[in-house]
Amino acid sequence: MTPFIHDDFMLQNNTACELYHEYAAQMPIIDYHNHLSAADLANNRQYQNLYEIWLEGDHYKWRAMRAAGIEEQLCTGKASPYEKFMAWARAVPQTLGNPLYHWTHLELKRYFGIDELLNERTAEAIWHKANARLADQDRTSWEILNHFNIKVLCTTDDPTDNLSSHIKLAQSACHAKVYPTFRPDRALQLHDASTFNAWTNILEHAADVPIHSLSQFLMALDKQHATFHNAGCRLSDHGLLHCTTASCDEHTATQIFGQARKGHQISDNDQSLFAGFMMQFFGELDAQRGWTKQLHLGAIRNNNTTMHKLIGEDTGFDSIGDYPQAQSLCRYLDELVKKECLPRMILYNLNPADNPVFATMAGNFQDHTTPGKIQWGSAWWFLDQKNGIESQLRTLMNLGLLSTFVGMLTDSRSMMSFTRHEYFRRILCNLLGEDIENGLLPNDVPLIGELVRQVSYHNADRYFNFMSSRH
After folding, report:
1. Residue 141: its H or E element
2. pTM for this one?
3. β-pairing verdict for 374-376 and 292-297
4. How many other β-carbons are positioned within 10 Å of the β-carbon of residue 285?
């Protein structure tokens, strides 16, 4: 019987098989956006069991387990690693049709050579086989990166981070280049003055700059931006409901900042004005240092306030938002153009209804300096499944240029997620193979194969300019 994960998994015609096996499969990976722990990577962590490498911190799985009726103790609670794994095994058969079913078995196959379908009956044997494999020296974090041919990996980091783990990695024997990403969202969030001030005090210490005024605040952020740059950082990232439609001059921003530093309540209007001012500032910083800015727009986060208070953020209580995006995004990009400081930028939407909006918005602000300077990013979060990826690719092909697309990323907290690049490449090759066999693209496999190589790796390698980061 052919195993579920076989050589031609998801490849539904001969041309797709040729494109994948001859052009996509062996391409290196640039994973330019993920949430892996820089400390784990710096310490070359060797995971002790399948729970640690697979379930620890994975809110996708927790969300599915809750939907399957599994109690919270077995998701994020105090149950043992084995008990949590067994609970996940019970849930897996209920995920049929969900991308988690594909990912689960692709990961078991690629990391451990396991072909069995995971369920309550097979779980114990899979647990022991995977744990034995994890004990091997070729399954440390660095060796996993090497196994999956990861050339560059970018973590997601707060501006206050001292980057000690990245400094340690840069001096290590790790084959992959691991760089930080500058994520300054907390610098925009004045609505809770006490939380903002606590974070600003940490920034003050990290940058060694006293922060009593807006000018000192901006100086500290610029200093940290330069520190990240010197550590190889070439990307920033923002996770926002939407771009703010408001902004203000520096005088007004100074007044708002002063009120926040005094602990005063900031109105929603002033919060929006200040966020708009700061987003312009961060755009200018990224342009000055030649970075790429990422905008992740449209997620409603931490919706279940009771669970947020109990177990914290990023635990699987987020969803797609239905915010208007077009006008505010257009205004933000246009303001940066008028100031001649529009950096390279990747736009990610979470609501699939916004696909044409984001695809056409990117086209408004291209210029001759970089092919595909403004990217419409890969299908993100709830959309990084077969239908979502196909929809993003189809819309991009119709309204933009697939030929300049920088491709896939994991956006994951799990060391088991690198197979998502394979998943994406198989979907890409199947889609292009269908078009060739239906006469919608020329029957020229070398021509289309070169496109596959560009999207899989070469476009990202050129676009992000990581060569200038290598020591």
Report:
1. helix 141-147
2. 0.97
3. unpaired
4. 23
